[in-house]
Amino acid sequence: VLGLLVWALIADTTYYLHAAYSWVMFVSIFFWIVTILFFVTYLFQLQLKFYVIPWPLVLMIFNAVATVLYISAFVTCAAAVQPTSWRQWDYNRRAAASFFACVVMITYGVSTFFSFRAWKGLGSNAATSQVTDHA
């Protein structure tokens, strides 16, 4: 939802007049679509059919790349916001898009952390933490 807000807010402005917003649009739409594809894959448990793919590693790499590219998109979007814009609603939407790009960047960063823990097997649940080997 947050990624959708980023590109929807920018798409509602005259972003084509500023080259910086093309990069932000690319990053936000691309990662929004890929995130939706991963969501559908996990929703329908399709990852179980492709058991050869190391899904925790794939998700960790995806989230790390998304974090890095969203950092660049956030900085680009925030730097391109001009308070002296001749259209006040463009300024408000671009500033809101910058805010939500920052929130999405943080969200992907947190997802990277949890994906790393899942990949390394550091996460545990109640069933695995109750089993102890007393030999």
TrEMBL record:
InterPro entries reported in the protein's UniProt record: MAL (IPR013295), Marvel (IPR008253), MARVEL-CKLF_proteins (IPR050578)
PROSITE patterns found in the cross-reference section: MARVEL
UniProt key word Acyltransferase: no
GO cellular component: apical plasma membrane; myelin sheath
UniProt subcellular location: Apical cell membrane; Myelin membrane
Domain of life: Eukaryota
Matching Pfam families: MARVEL
Assembly, per entry: Forms oligomers.
Domain MARVEL: 1-120
UniProt-recorded name of the protein: Plasmolipin
Family that this chain belongs to: Belongs to the MAL family.
KW Cytoplasm (keyword) present: no
Keywords: Cell membrane, Membrane, Transmembrane, Transmembrane helix
Transmembrane segments: 20-44, 51-75, 95-116
Gene Ontology biological process terms from the UniProt entry: myelination
Topology with respect to the bilayer: Multi-pass membrane protein
One GO MF term attached to the UniProt entry: structural constituent of myelin sheath
PANTHER family: MARVEL-CONTAINING POTENTIAL LIPID RAFT-ASSOCIATED PROTEIN, PLASMOLIPIN
